[in-house]
Amino acid sequence: MPPPEPPNPYKVLGLEFGATPAEIKKAHKKLALKWHPDKNKGDPTAETKFTEIQEAYEVLQDDKAREAFDNLMKAKKQKEAKHEEMNKQRRAEVSKLEEREAAAAQKSADVGSAQRRYQAELERLREASKNVLAQAAEKRKAEREQQQDAVLNKVNEAEASQRRQVEIQTELTRTVRVKWPKKGALHGPALEAMFAVFGGVESVVALKKSGMVVFTSDVAAANAAHAVKAGLVDAAREHGVTVDWVLPEKRVERIPTPE
């Protein structure tokens, strides 16, 4: 049983056999716009029609596929012409008719061969189209994953920056600046001893006439600052120590007096 006859790409695009590339391109553009599924929602035949148009265009654009189909068409026309010629011959020319019938049988075999070749080229185009679509889908997937990774990285960076800002802010609320008038009058251990009575001291930095004291809690920093400003710390009064807040002062309920 011969394979089913494939659709005629020229007829699908409404063209005559042997149409020029420009005519093919023009017809394809017009029909593709007309039958595009997005413009024919609700019409179940639109997608099938659009696929036939695309397939016909791909055949006529591909040199090998078009040559195969043109050969098929030529073979068919030759066969039809041969049959028509035989029908016009007189019955008396039996021997000649038999010879022509044998030739027609050979042409029929040629048609089958040409059709099989065209079918093979059509399958090749369909497979190539599937590969292109699959590659495009993989590319879109990779791009989406890259975009998602980029967004996630930005979110992580923003969260890390926020955490660092909170850490810095928290540390600054536990820090007081210290100044004294006499150069070299105080050093790190002396400052630590002066302020340790108000709570844990995390670190001390002492320069020539100024320094910084970082407490383990903001309450201890507030108590120390208020006590020095109130003149309750003898060592601070002796050295003329003044304090300034790195951040605005905190209100505390109780300021202990150092012993």
Query: Roughly what fraction of the amino acids lie in strands?
Result: 5-15%
Largest sheet: 4 strands, antiparallel
Quickly count the helices: 8
Mean of residue pLDDT? 86
- The global form is rod-shaped
Q: How many extended strands? A: 4
Can you put this structure into words, describing what you see?
By secondary structure, the protein is an alpha+beta fold. The chain has eight helices and four strands; from the N terminus they run αααααβαββααβ. The chain has helices at residues 9-12, 21-35, 44-61, 63-88, 94-172, 188-195, 218-229, 234-238; strands spanning 175-179, 201-206, 210-215, 242-245. It has a four-stranded antiparallel β-sheet with strand order 2-3-1-4, covered by helices on one side. Helix 3 (44-61) crosses helix 4 (63-88). It starts with 8 loop residues before the first helix and ends in a 14-residue tail after the last strand.
Q: Secondary-structure map with pairings?
A:
Layout: H1 9-12, H2 21-35, H3 44-61, H4 63-88, H5 94-172, E1 175-179, H6 188-195, E2 201-206, E3 210-215, H7 218-229, H8 234-238, E4 242-245
Antiparallel strand pairs: 1-3, 1-4, 2-3
Labels describing this entry:
259 residues, alpha+beta, four-stranded antiparallel beta sheet, 8 helices, 4 strands, rod-shaped
